[in-house]
Design brief:
By secondary structure, the protein is of the alpha/beta class. The protein has one domain: Carbonic anhydrase (Beta-carbonic Anhydrase, Chain A, 3-Layer(aba) Sandwich). The chain is built from eleven helices and five strands. It has a five-stranded mixed β-sheet, sandwiched between helices. The radius of gyration is 21 Å and the shape is globular. Bound molecules: zinc ion (ZN).
């Protein structure tokens, strides 16, 4: 009986400790503004070829992170091989929670992943990152609303195509811009890339009651940005 009580007591201790750990788990280690600054500082290191993340990818960091993680930023970006967030933001193990899918489009699985990191890991920042000359955007424009021949690629194109009206408006307004003047098709693709990232960021709270609640409470900040394949710079959309 005594043994049973002791086991019961121990279970209670673990239960209480577990609850305490669970409730502290979701609290952010830094603010969203600090997290954003860390990403932008890391991008500056990358652009200037002064990367430091190698020092946070060693055995000591791996061991320290083996049983828990507290990433301070969530990055939803494209699967494009030239846009790896850990490299372009100069980040090591445990720093950023990355979701990559062609065209950086959300679906329930993607949004669920963002919810998990925001709610359970306490990441205060969500960044939707589009990039220059995105193949998924190009494929969407080329499909002209018709099937690409794959219902799976069609699902990506359909999401991106929802931003075509906004991109058309933006493209009309930015014709004087040097980059937009390079070629009409290429210019429109860039405007669609921008509109896609902005709309996805703006719609995350509409698609997720959890993210809506966290945003309302000031616990997460959602931003949209674009990566330049030529100079490596990440630029935030206002
Ligand atoms: Zn892409």
């Amino acid at each position: 009986m005594k043994r049973k009580l002791t086991l019961f007591g121990l279970s209670l201790v673990f239960l209480v400790t577990g609850i305490a750990l669970a409730s502290s788990h979701g609290s952010p280690s830094i603010s969203a503004e600090e997290a954003l600054q860390k990403l932008m500082d890391g991008n500056k290191h990358y652009v200037e070829n002064k990367m430091t993340s190698q020092s946070t990818c060693d055995t000591a960091h791996r061991t320290a992170l083996a049983h828990s993680q507290k990433p301070y930023a969530i990055v939803l970006t494209c699967s494009d091989s030239r846009v790896p967030p850990e490299i372009i933001f100069d980040k090591g193990l445990g720093e950023i929670f990355v979701i990559r899918v062609a065209g950086n489009v959300p679906d329930p699985v993607v949004i669920g992943s963002i919810e998990y990191a925001a709610e359970h890991l306490g990441s205060p920042l969500v960044m939707v990152l589009g990039h220059e000359r995105c193949g998924a955007v190009k494929a969407t424009i080329e499909a002209k609303g018709k099937s690409t021949g794959s219902k799976n690629i069609d699902a990506i194109a359909k999401t991106i195509a929802a931003s075509i009206p906004d991109a058309t408006k933006a493209c009309d307004a930015c014709k004087a811009d040097k980059k937009c003047a390079e070629g009409k098709a290429a210019a429109f693709a860039e405007c669609l890339t921008d509109a896609n990232a902005k709309n996805i960021a703006a719609n995350l709270t509409k698609s997720s009651p959890i993210l809506k609640h966290l945003a309302k409470e000031g616990k997460i900040k959602i931003v949209a940005a674009k990566y330049d394949l030529d100079d490596g710079l990440v630029t935030l959309f206002k």
